[in-house]
């Protein structure tokens, strides 16, 4: 210790140290700009280039859409530079004058309340589905995906009913047997080999016609009655209730299924009574008179909703161990992915009727909806298959060890995780499909862009800026819908992946 005390320090500071400069801020707007925009010479150059691009793009755009825009007027003269004696930007009176055409197309003016009511019902049913904590999800989903399409059809298209399920089944079976008998008769009147095939077919058709004779007689009796719709609905309800009671073991297992069936038929009866479907229903408005945003939403929503089950079925089929199912799924996916959407629309609109029987017709819009659903389903199948491949095999093996069947394993364990993984890819496909609906104008269906092009032909609004104003307005509508889908998908993805956040 004495030796340590005797050691003289080599240096002892006898003055205070000069204060050093404050450290560079790591928080706030300045720090963020320094870290993200000016952290290196390359980033500085890119930032300056981006600012110049924004200046040369955003400033003229704001000037055209807002600063130099014309906001009031009743005809083209309000949007001419000769009238205002200044530079003229967007002609918003044009969009205001054509707004109803952009929304309804050529839908008759007195019947447009039906479109408004359809939009309102869709919003009321869709909003609770989008809110995670909203109650009665199963009931709400059933109403939106099953009941609403039927109600929307009778609201938008109009028309009534001549019967119900009993008459429909009898008509379907009668038509199929009639086609079978016609084919058998043509074969029987052909050559020797054709006669060998045709006579058994004709005999089968005759036997089936005798088999369904009681059903045909019941249909004729219903049609001859004074109230065919209500009698047919009552018979259908009795048959459905009896089937539910027989399959559920009666009331011993609870009255839940019976109450659901009775509530379903009560709801159907209310719709028939309110819309007067038993008396011809609302006036018929053909799909050729539909247009604008109505057609865009009908095609996009139907394509999105219809493509999901098709995509799931094809994705599971492509992974199936049964060769026939796997080959069919692969061939279906590769065929529809290898064909342009325009070709699909042309085939569905103009060529498909050539392959149908002469007395069988399908509405043009329905053909387009089916083609788009199949086309989008093939793309969604590959997106979903990527999610299925991302699930570890141990998930299915653990489910098998617990005694779960294939369908329960797929529906309860594998598929929910796969869909959660591919939310961005699915929403990207939905957004692309929503924008691709503009292609239906090629097959004489006037969607939003089709109505815009039709509005350009009005000489009362022919100005140098009308074209740019119209495309800016429709582009804003497309952006609102696509941006809303994108933001909601981020919300769902963030909520479902809460377990991954640290």
Task: Give an overview of the whole structure.
The chain has helices at residues 2-5, 28-36, 41-67, 81-84, 92-97, 99-104, 112-130, 137-156, 165-188, 192-211, 213-224, 228-247, 256-275, 293-318, 323-337, 341-351, 364-389, 393-401, 406-421, 423-436, 448-455, 466-496. Helix 14 packs across helix 17. The longest helix has 31 residues, at 466-496. The two termini are 54 Å apart. It has 22 helices and no strands. It is extended. It has 502 residues and is mostly helical.
Major beta sheet summary: none
Unreliable runs: none
Helix content: 55-70%
If you compute it from the alpha carbons, what radius of gyration comes out, rounded to the nearest whole angstrom? 33 Å
From the spread of the alpha carbons, the general shape counts as: extended
Series of H and E elements: HHHHHHHHHHHHHHHHHHHHHH
* Total DSSP helices: 22
Secondary-structure class: mainly alpha
Count every beta strand, where a strand is a DSSP E run of 2 or more residues: 0
Distance N to C terminus = 54 Å
Strand content: under 5%
Mean pLDDT: 85
Short description:
By secondary structure, this protein is mainly alpha-helical. The chain is 69% helix and 0% strand.
Short descriptors:
single chain; mainly alpha; 69% helix; extended
Architecture blueprint of SSEs:
Blueprint: H1 2-5, H2 28-36, H3 41-67, H4 81-84, H5 92-97, H6 99-104, H7 112-130, H8 137-156, H9 165-188, H10 192-211, H11 213-224, H12 228-247, H13 256-275, H14 293-318, H15 323-337, H16 341-351, H17 364-389, H18 393-401, H19 406-421, H20 423-436, H21 448-455, H22 466-496
Helix pairs in contact: 7-8, 9-10, 9-11, 12-13, 14-15, 14-17, 14-20, 15-17, 16-17, 17-19, 17-20, 18-19, 20-22
């Amino acid at each position: 210790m004495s030796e340590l005390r005797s050691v003289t320090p080599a240096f002892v500071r006898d003055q205070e140290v000069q204060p050093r400069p404050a450290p560079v801020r790591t928080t706030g707007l300045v720090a963020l700009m320094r870290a993200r925009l000016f952290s290196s010479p390359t980033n500085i150059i890119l930032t300056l280039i981006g600012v110049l691009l924004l200046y040369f793009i955003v400033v003229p755009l704001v000037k055209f859409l807002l600063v130099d825009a014309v906001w009031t007027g009743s005809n083209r003269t309000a949007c001419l530079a000769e009238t205002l004696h200044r530079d003229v930007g967007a002609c918003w009176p044009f969009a205001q004058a054509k707004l109803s055409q952009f929304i309804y197309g050529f839908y008759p003016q007195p019947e447009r309340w039906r479109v408004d009511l359809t939009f309102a019902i869709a919003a009321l049913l869709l909003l609770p589905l989008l809110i995670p904590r909203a109650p009665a999800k199963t009931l709400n989903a059933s109403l939106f995906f099953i009941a609403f399409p039927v109600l929307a059809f009778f609201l938008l298209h109009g028309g009534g009913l001549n019967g119900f399920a009993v008459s429909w089944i009898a008509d379907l079976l009668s038509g199929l047997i009639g086609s079978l008998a016609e084919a058998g008769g043509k074969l029987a009147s052909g050559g020797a080999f054709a006669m060998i095939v045709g006579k058994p077919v004709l005999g089968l058709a005759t036997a089936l016609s005798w088999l369904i004779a009681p059903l045909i007689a019941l249909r004729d009796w219903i049609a001859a009655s004074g109230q065919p719709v209500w009698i047919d609905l009552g018979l259908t309800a009795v048959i459905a209730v009896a089937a539910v009671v027989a399959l559920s073991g009666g009331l011993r297992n609870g009255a839940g299924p019976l109450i659901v069936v009775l509530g379903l038929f009560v709801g159907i009866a209310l719709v028939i009574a309110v819309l007067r479907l038993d008396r011809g229903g609302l006036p018929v408005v053909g799909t050729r008179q539909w247009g604008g945003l109505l057609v865009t939403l009908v095609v996009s929503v139907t394509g999105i909703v219809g493509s999901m089950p098709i995509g799931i079925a094809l994705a599971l089929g492509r992974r199936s161990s049964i060769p026939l199912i796997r080959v069919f799924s692969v061939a279906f996916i590769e065929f529809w992915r290898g064909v342009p959407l325009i070709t699909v629309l042309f085939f569905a609109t103009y060529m498909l009727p050539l392959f149908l029987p002469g007395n069988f017709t399908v509405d043009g819009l329905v053909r387009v909806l089916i083609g788009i659903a199949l086309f989008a389903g093939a793309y969604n199948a590959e997106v979903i298959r990527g999610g299925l491949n991302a699930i570890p095999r141990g998930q299915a093996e653990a489910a098998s060890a617990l005694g779960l069947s294939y369908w329960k394993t797929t529906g309860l364990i594998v598929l929910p995780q796969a869909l959660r993984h591919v939310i961005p890819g699915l929403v990207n496909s939905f957004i692309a499909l929503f924008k691709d609906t503009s292609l239906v104008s090629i097959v004489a269906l006037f969607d939003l862009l089709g109505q815009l092009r039709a509005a350009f032909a009005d000489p009362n609004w022919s100005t140098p800026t009308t074209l740019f104003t119209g495309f800016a307005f429709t582009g804003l509508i497309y952006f609102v819908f696509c941006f809303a889908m994108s933001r909601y998908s981020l919300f769902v993805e963030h909520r479902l992946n809460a377990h991954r956040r640290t």
